[in-house]
């Protein structure tokens, strides 16, 4: 009987052989853990659609970040839920705002942990949109001024990196300019360069109380049907000074991660979003999927597609398994 000379199974026979030729690694060093900060004292409440993910008040955050740091996770990304919202999202850049206080607390307790901040208005505006509203429309250029203020206020509070997620045109350039003027030319921007208008943000909007009160985000977030546009978006952000390019969500957009990896030499990040996490958790709870294996496989695919950095709610679980 004829056999080809190459038999792929030869290298799959034992774990040692498989490990010897494994092409992709998932390490805790690549991971960023998202954290939700809420007003009040002594608060640690689970997000109902995201089992294992909690919202913390600033005082409770310290214990959490200590655990994150000790697990070897190098970075967190902060999302704040303010005490009060208004039309222009002014709490987003308030000196004693929720995120600003959280940054200070983290930097005091675990100074080496990288603190990234999400720069957006949707958690802070009464209408829940990521930009300012004028005549029922999102006013792009007026929003840029607000975002610049938010980014600078985060840097002043001690953030190590800012991550604009609003999808306004020109925001990376405007934020870069504002940071430089304020003496923060050393603070990198991780741009949510390619952010799709996705149903997979559902659980996050519960956690961050940021669902739009009217309409949707289709006039600023990307159409899931578009791949070539992703290159245009990323190219613009590179031109405007982005240091890291992010694709979001991750698993439904692996092709986009791969394209960006091939087209650009910047570090690529991918955000495994709330709905991706919720889906695996839910199926795991129902006994329909092996949750742990699904977690590994999805994260490994995101790495395989070309992501250097992964933002994921699974970060602590992964770290616990690896240590
Ligand atoms: C804010 C923002 C969102 C997410 C990150 N930053 C929500 C949105 O755009 O509606 C989603 C993250 C997740 O789903 O885990 N603009």
TrEMBL record:
It comes from the Bacteria. NCBIfam families: PRK09283.1 (NF006762). Pathway: Porphyrin-containing compound metabolism; protoporphyrin-IX biosynthesis; coproporphyrinogen-III from 5-aminolevulinate: step 1/4. Homooctamer. SMART domains: ALAD. 5-aminolevulinate 2 binds at residues 274, 313. Pfam families: ALAD (PF00490). One of its GO terms (biological process) is protoporphyrinogen IX biosynthetic process. Coiled coil: none annotated. This is Delta-aminolevulinic acid dehydratase. PROSITE patterns: D_ALA_DEHYDRATASE. GO terms for molecular function: porphobilinogen synthase activity; zinc ion binding. 5-aminolevulinate 1 binds at residues 205, 217. CDD domains: ALAD_PBGS (cd00384). GO terms for cellular component: cytosol. The active site is at 195 (schiff-base intermediate with substrate), 248 (schiff-base intermediate with substrate). It comes from Thermodesulfatator atlanticus. Its EC number is 4.2.1.24.
């Amino acid at each position: 009987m004829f056999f080809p000379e190459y038999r792929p199974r030869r290298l799959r026979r034992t774990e040692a052989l498989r490990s010897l030729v494994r092409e992709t690694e998932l390490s805790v060093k690549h991971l960023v853990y998202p954290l939700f900060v809420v007003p009040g004292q002594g608060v640690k409440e689970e997000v109902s659609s995201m089992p294992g993910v909690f919202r913390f008040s600033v005082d409770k955050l310290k214990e959490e970040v200590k655990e994150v740091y000790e697990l070897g996770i190098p970075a967190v990304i902060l999302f704040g839920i303010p005490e009060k919202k208004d039309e222009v999202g002014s709490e987003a850049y308030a000196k004693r705002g929720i995120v600003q206080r959280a940054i200070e607390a983290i930097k005091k307790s675990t100074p080496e942990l990288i603190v990234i901040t999400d720069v957006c208005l949707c958690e802070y505006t009464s209408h829940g949109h990521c930009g300012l509203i004028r005549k029922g429309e999102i006013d792009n250029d007026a929003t840029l001024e607000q975002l610049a203020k938010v980014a600078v206020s985060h840097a002043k509070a001690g953030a190590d990196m800012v991550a604009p997620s609003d999808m306004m045109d020109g925001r990376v350039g405007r934020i870069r300019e504002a940071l430089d003027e304020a003496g923060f030319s050393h603070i990198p921007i991780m741009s949510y360069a390619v952010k799709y208008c996705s149903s997979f943000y559902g659980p996050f909007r519960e956690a961050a109380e940021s669902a739009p009160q009217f309409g949707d985000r289709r006039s600023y977030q990307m159409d899931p049907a578009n791949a070539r546009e992703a290159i245009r978006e990323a190219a613009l952000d590179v031109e405007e000074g982005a240091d890291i390019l992010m694709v979001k969500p991750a698993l439904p957009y692996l092709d986009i991660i791969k394209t960006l990896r091939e087209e650009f030499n910047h570090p690529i990040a991918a955000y495994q979003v709330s709905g991706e996490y919720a889906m695996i958790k839910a199926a795991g709870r129902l006994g329909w999927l092996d949750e742990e294996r699904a977690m590994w496989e999805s994260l490994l695919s995101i790495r395989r597609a070309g992501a250097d950095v992964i933002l994921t709610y699974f970060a602590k679980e992964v770290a616990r398994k690896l240590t």
